[in-house]
Amino acid sequence: MKQEPLKIPQATSKRLPLYYRFIQNFSNAGKKRVSSQELSEAMKIDSATIRRDFSHFGALGKKGYGYEVQHLLEFFRQTLDQDEETNVALIGVGSLGTAFLKYNFHKNHNTRIVVAFDTSATEDGTMMSNIPVFEPTKLEEKIQQYGIELVILTVPSRAAQEVTDRLIKTSVKGILNFTPVRLTVPDSIRIHTIDLSVELQTLIYSIKKDEETFTLRS
């Protein structure tokens, strides 16, 4: 009988890369064992949340003993496929897109931008931060050539859905969307939207609520 895949809450899934990063820090510091409380203090996440997250994956540690750092490191490396590199395409090389190209992800992660697309590119392609940038007309051709499954989308809002409609017909399985547009895609494609203006407004609201709470307590 085929085993059903684990159903991990989305909030937990978003924290997995953070766990991996902080566990790497403990490993680099020579730490052999770590408790949920130590992770909590380092990550600023409630220890009960950490234990609940870890419980979705079975017995990763022992009560009263904690977690073996190397065991956790290997577990999250495999869970996050850290040993397998993923090629990423960037679509839209404006201010934000240029910052992504300069940073690139392979320095610290298993993902790397290998190709980009922008209307400013020349017919034969342009090199930016050692990454080839092509005209949008070559989108489908180059996505196939580079074996792209993940895309970072930083195009103007008016072009977001049009570009996405083209991506739907390719091998792309995931889109990290930095436009404020709520994109329409089939169930076969995952989308994570990061709207910077909404994130800032949420932060401002949280700050004001904290100030109100502090004033009431004073």
UniProtKB/TrEMBL annotation:
Q: Give the UniProt keywords, A-Z.
A: Cytoplasm, DNA-binding, NAD, Repressor, Transcription, Transcription regulation
Task: Assign the protein's first listed, main location to one coarse class.
Answer: cytoplasm
Gene Ontology terms describing biological process: negative regulation of DNA-templated transcription; response to redox state
UniProt: NAD(+) binding residues: G92, V93, G94, S95, L96, G97
> Does the record bear DNA-binding in its keywords?
yes
A GO molecular function term, named singly, is: DNA binding
Listed under GO cellular component are: cytoplasm
Q: Which residues bind DNA?
A: 18-57
List the subcellular locations.
Answer: Cytoplasm
InterPro entries according to UniProt: CoA-bd (IPR003781), NAD(P)-bd_dom_sf (IPR036291), Rex_bacilli-type (IPR058203), Rex_DNA-bd_C_dom (IPR009718), Tscrpt_rep_Rex (IPR022876), WH-like_DNA-bd_sf (IPR036388), WH_DNA-bd_sf (IPR036390)
Task: State the PANTHER family in the record.
Answer: REDOX-SENSING TRANSCRIPTIONAL REPRESSOR REX, REDOX-SENSING TRANSCRIPTIONAL REPRESSOR REX 1
Q: What does this protein do?
A: Modulates transcription in response to changes in cellular NADH/NAD(+) redox state.
Family assignment from sequence similarity: Belongs to the transcriptional regulatory Rex family.
Share what the entry says about its subunit structure, partners included: Homodimer.
Its recorded name reads Redox-sensing transcriptional repressor Rex
This protein's encoding gene: rex
